[in-house]
Every structure is written in C-alpha cells, then in structure tokens.
Write a structure and sequence with these properties.
Blueprint lengths: L1 E5 L8 H14 L4 E5 L5 H6 L8 H7 L9 E2 L5 E4 L4 H9 L1 H12 L7 E5 L6 H9 L2 E6 L3 H5 L1 H14 L5 E7 L6 H14 L13 H8 L3 H4 L4 H15 L15 H13 L3
Parallel strand pairs: 1-5, 1-6, 2-4, 2-5, 6-7
Antiparallel strand pairs: 3-4
C-alpha cells in the first residue's frame, strides 16, 4: 500500500483537484484508493461525497479510540473510498497541537492493507496536520499551478519535506511535483520550463491543462475522468496517474512511534512546527 501526502502551503494550487482526479484515475485502473481528507475545508469530501461532517469520529481516530478504516465510505468514483473531513479538525489542531500530530501518525500507521493507495489531502498550511501527514506517509506530491508566485512558493514545501525526512520520517520521499491548470500562455510555458530546470526529474513529465471541465465536474460531484472521459484534460489526468504508478519508490516501512519514544517525538514535532511560527 502506497501512502501519499498531497501537500502545498497555500490554497488554490490544485491540491484537491489533484487528489480527487488521481484517485479516480487510479480507480479506473482497478487500484483501490482511499482519500483521507485532512483539510478542514472538506473540498474533496464535498466533491466526491456528502461534504465534511460535524462528527468527532476522525478526531477519535487520532486519539486511538476509532480506526480510520472504519470511517471510510464509498464515493461516486469506482474503487475510491473517502474518509470525510470533520469540523473538529480545526479545534483539534488548535487544542492538541503536537499530540494531534502524534495521534494522526499512529492512526495512519494502523490503516489496513485494504487499499492500494492512500491519498491524503492536506490542509493548505504547514501546520501540525500537514506535518502529521508527512510523518505518516511514505511519499509526498506537491501540486502547483504555473504562475510565478505558486512556483516560487514550492521551495518552502520541499524544504519541509526534507526536514521531516531527516528529523522524523526517513522513509519519506518526494514522488514529484505535479503541474496543473496549464494554460497556453507564454508565461505558463516559461514557468514550467523554469520548474524543470530547477527540479529536474522531480517534475512529472505530463502536465494537466486548464479546463472548464474541472469545475464543472466538481459541481456535478463527479471526477473529471467520469464527467468528461474523452476530453484532453481527462487524458492528462490519466497520464499523470500512469506516471504516479511508475514512480513507486518501494520505500521502507514507516517507523512506528513507540510509547517510550513519544516524548522525544513530541519535542521534535513541536520544534519542527514551532520553528515556522
């Protein structure tokens, strides 16, 4: 089972679009995929499900009293399940902070091998929930749009991934940077070219073009590959999913947080997040 954090530090970068679209494309290929919606806004939950909940079950899974797998529900996309976001996430992150991160790490480690992929839609910040996702996953994907500000903002995210790898999760790897909403403008082409020059093979070969079909699909509650299966943007998404499959890092198992090491981890996570505040 591959566990992948889909992460960026800002909203509007195509993070949820990448999560939902890749999950659906993987499902088309028969790969059972679980979306774990850790973004309190719950956009992925609204897109493929009934929206975020006001129940505390997801919070309880971080406390160890519920299993994340018990919260998974089917979506309208074949072979794709989702753990919906909860309004409790904001309160929990504010109150529990480091303990929430440690609980999320443990909860993710207990996800059974019932799925081939787990895609975590992270919140658009680099706070405790995002750090927890990076600690609990083996891979990270950074989605962004080909605009100057978005491209320049990728460096802090890559630094965060590197920092978590060295201090908390040595199994974590950067699977790649996925560029979406690519227009036909010279600016977009220039930004993509600069990204490839700066980050080389870390940038996925296929890109996802800008298309009105994406918001239309979201409004219809369907993934793009089902809503407009024969369009160019759907073909782009399938190409990115195919490259994601090929980029399997075969990482070593994520180290578990043992009870005796919890205090040490608590200090490291606290310093990691606190250094950004």
């Amino acid at each position: 089972m591959r566990t992948i954090a889909v992460i960026n530090r800002k909203g509007g970068c195509g993070k949820t679009t990448a999560t939902v679209s890749l999950a659906a494309a993987l499902g088309e290929l028969g790969r059972r995929t679980l979306i774990l919606d850790l973004d309190p806004q719950g956009s992925a939950s609204s897109w493929l499900g009934n929206g975020p909940t006001d129940r505390r079950e997801l919070f309880d899974s971080f406390l160890g009293t519920r299993g994340i797998a018990d919260l998974a529900v089917p979506t309208r996309a074949p072979c794709v399940d989702i753990v919906p976001a909860s309004s409790w996430l904001v309160t929990a992150e504010r109150r529990l902070q480091v303990d929430l991160a440690l609980g999320a790490i443990r909860a993710m480690e207990r996800i059974p091998e019932s799925w081939d992929y787990v895609l975590v839609d992270c919140p658009p910040t680099l706070g405790y929930l995002a750090s927890a996702a990076l600690c609990g996953c083996r891979e990270a994907i950074v989605p962004l749009q080909p605009h100057g500000l978005d491209a320049s903002g990728v460096e802090p995210v890559l630094e965060e991934i590197s920092r978590v790898r060295h201090q908390l999760n040595p199994a974590l790897v950067l699977t790649g940077i996925v560029v979406g909403r690519v227009s036909r403008t010279n600016h977009a082409r220039d930004v993509v070219a600069r990204l490839r020059s700066a980050h080389g093979d870390s940038v996925f070969g296929p890109t996802i073009r800008d298309s009105i079909r994406v918001p239309e699909a979201a409004m219809a509650g369907q993934p793009v590959t089902a809503f407009a299966p024969d369009t160019a943007v759907a073909r782009d998404i399938r190409a990115v999913a195919a490259e994601l499959i090929r980029r399997d890092p075969n990482a070593l198992p994520v180290r578990r947080v043992e009870a005796g090491r919890a205090a040490g981890w608590r200090g490291v996570v606290g310093r990691l997040v606190g250094s950004r505040s």
